[in-house]
Structures are given as structure tokens and as C-alpha cells.
Write a structure and sequence with these properties.
mainly alpha; globular
């Protein structure tokens, strides 16, 4: 699953749709093989919460701006 401009998708109310798509994919695919790639200008608490639901253990953030704490 690729989420581009994820922060904007959440701002305009697609959070339930994103969770539904993830649920449908999980029903049909090997859970171990599923990858979620997210591109976002910002990582707010809502986006972090959704990514934590998607991840098996943890997820990695790559900060190209230098404002991330990790």
C-alpha cells in the first residue's frame, strides 16, 4: 500500500477509507508480505496512529528536512 501526501488525505477526511483499504488488503494478501509506504510533509499524531496500526512492530521515518526527533 502506498500513501502519497498522507497528511493531506487525513486532513480531507480519508482516514476511514485508508483503514478500510488496509483491512481489505489484509484479508486477501499474506500479512507478512504486506508493505506500507507513506509519503507525507508532516507526521501528526493521527498519521502516526494509523501507521502504528499498520506496522507489525515498528516503522521507520526518514526525515529529509531535519525536524524529526528520530
Amino acid at each position: 500500500i502506498v500513501l502519497d501526501e498522507a497528511d493531506v488525505l487525513l486532513e480531507i477526511g480519508f482516514d476511514k477509507d485508508i483503514l478500510e483499504i488496509h483491512s481489505k488488503v489484509m484479508e486477501q494478501k499474506n500479512k507478512e508480505a504486506l508493505q506500507v509506504i507513506c509519503f507525507s510533509a508532516t507526521f501528526n499524531s493521527t498519521l502516526n496512529g494509523i501507521l502504528q496500526k499498520f506496522s507489525k512492530e515498528k516503522f521507520y521515518k526518514i526525515d529529509l528536512v531535519g525536524n524529526s526527533d528520530k
